[in-house]
Amino acid sequence: MKKIMTVLLGILLLTPAVPKAADLEPEIVLRNGVNAIISVLNDPAFASANQKDARKELLFNKAESVFDFNEFSRGALGRNWGRFSENQRTEFIKHFSRLIANTYIAKIDDENFEDLKITYTKTEMLDATKSGIERADIATDVFHNKVMTPVNYRMMKKKGGEWKIYDVKIEGVSLVGNYREQYRTRFNDSPDKIIQEIKEKISQ
Q1: What Rg, from alpha-carbon coordinates, does the chain have?
Q2: Residue 125: beta bridge partners?
Q3: Phi and psi dihedrals of 165, rounded to 5?
């Protein structure tokens, strides 16, 4: 799954960033987010080795404008979300987001994406939820190392908010679902213990 997420982030970084006139709003938002991330990668101010940590931090900040880490965290916890207090949820989101960044975003430099190409095959506007949340499903085909992989981005827009990614399906497998399966059997562990484990992983 780490390798898959690394490629996924590469997709975000290398997707053609100029929107077509016919693109629907979620796809345009996705492409604009890519522009912001590419600008960091191409900035010569971050080219030296001693700027690697600063660039990683900035990349994480840019990723926050594309991903809804709140929904990602809630989906990852699944039924466990109800056991967390508001403060514990805030702590979990804060550290879980950082864990994702440390585990995956930091690996961008170690992956070669020169041959990576992406094709948008379909952007489908889904029915809004009863609470008025707009949703979209953006299907793509990713070509990397002579292999084609279908990747679907699930995006949502809350009232007064912006379009953001809340899940990604790679070959039909949900990234949020993958994490949710890991936490599914953790009902005997306290929320504080789960949060502490994430903190320890971050410090490793």
Answers
A1: 17
A2: 136
A3: -80, 130
Cα distance between residue 62 and residue 33, in whole Å: 7
Q: In this predicted model, what pLDDT tens digit does every residue of 137-174 receive, in sequence order?
A: 988 887 877 889 898 889 999 988 999 999 988 888 89
Measuring CA to CA, which residue among 12, 35, 58, 46 is closest to residue 151? 12
User: Cα separation of 16 and 56, whole Å?
Assistant: 22
| For residue 18, pLDDT beyond 50 | no
Q: What is the pLDDT of residues 22-51, one digit of tens each?
A: 457 898 887 777 667 667 767 888 878 888
Q: In the structure encoding, which two tokens stand for residue 107, read together?
A: 């690996």
Q: Under 8 Å CB-to-CB from 124, ≥6 apart: which residues?
A: 136, 137, 138, 139
Look at the pTM and tell me if it is higher than 0.85. Answer: no
Share of the chain above pLDDT 70, in %: 79
Among candidate residues 180, 148, 186, the one with its CA nearest the CA of residue 1? 180
Nearest to 37 by CA among 66, 8, 68: 66
The class level of CATH for 2-203 reads: alpha beta
- Cross-strand partners of 140: 120, 151
